[in-house]
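anyone seen this seq b4? input:
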Amino acid sequence: MSRHRPRLAVVAALLVAAQFTVQPPASAAPVRPASSDVASASQAMRGPSITSVARPVDYTYDGAGQLRGVAEVAAGAGARYSYDDAGNVTRVERTAAGALSISGVTPGRASAGASVAIGGTGFAATPSGNTVTFNGTPATVTGAAANRLTVTVPAGATSGAITVSTGSVSADSPQSFTVTAAVPEPSIAGFSPASGAAGTTVTITGSGFSAVKDENNVAFGRTRARVTAATAGALTVTVPEAAVSGRIRVVTAGGTATSTGDFVAITNPFGAADIGPDAVLTVDGTPSTVTIGTGGTVAVLRFAGAEGQRVSLGVTGSTLGDVKLYAYTPYGGSIAHFEYDEPWAASDLAGGLALPPLPTSGTYQVVVQPSSATATGSFTATLSTRATGVLSLTGAGATVALDRAGKQAELTFTAGEDQRIGLDE
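predicted toks r here
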């Protein structure tokens, strides 16, 4: 007898399981305004049970990830949780259906103009039906539901309680909301030098940077760089070991800034003196002709790729003689171990360099190095999507258009074990 469960039985089990939904236990369903001790709070925090009836529940959490409120969406009842400094539940306050209450605010601190969410019960279903103030300063309500409000921190607001009023009834937030100073959005005006190897010092100029260097997150491609000095208008950073050519990105509390131009990273085993021309390729785009005018230098090509994409690079019309091709991922490493740890000579390729499925989305880099240290001249680079097709062992052949330099095809077919087949081109 087979030791495996029949496939039909597994499918049936999955279908049955799919009919159940998760619902909080009856002990956690708020029914009346009251306060309970720690034992009752522990009971209310027990895990959910399995039932065949769905009852949607909305949860509110604070910045520490602690559950602050539970509200039954349809019934309108809720519960609010309090904690001590060690994170232990000290109190559970229940609210009856329709009673106005605030269980929590996310985030708990923000500057004027920021959007915050207020969780609770008993809110008006329209923004105009709710009056919200931040320590007495009126705020604009941009979204409303019975258990959640979206509001904008008003200009001139100060730290303190948030109050929600519907008609003649009001409720205050259980925790004080902190109004922080506005943080400007960063922008990048430029950077210098325009290229460099790992360890090179680069100065990024712009505005909106933090004067605290650790509050600026700088990345070259996918690799984070170390910030060694910072002012509001300039950052001094060190090019990381795994950098590749592409845009520089700066992230602060105020937002994200991306450079308009590309930084040309010098990848191993090359140095600053080795770098010659650079070019940007587009998958299935116009071929690019690149000229190396100084002997002993290399050309740096880069392109934007998507995870799982299959592409090939054609190098044609070379007046440099044979060339070597090095391929790098957005993380600065070899695009595939073993097969691509060493460069490929163009003369050894069957029409083009077939790259493996791209491991991640980002900017990829290919370095083209003339085999002769004194060679000068030009070549044309063409980047193409790999063609695909399906072959039939009994039907007509498949026609595949290889209409670009270096373009390759991948054909699949279905065959039986030990079946002998032949392939005609």
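Residues 10-180 form a domain with the Immunoglobulin-like fold (CATH 2.60.40.10). The radius of gyration is 31 Å. kinda curious what u guys think
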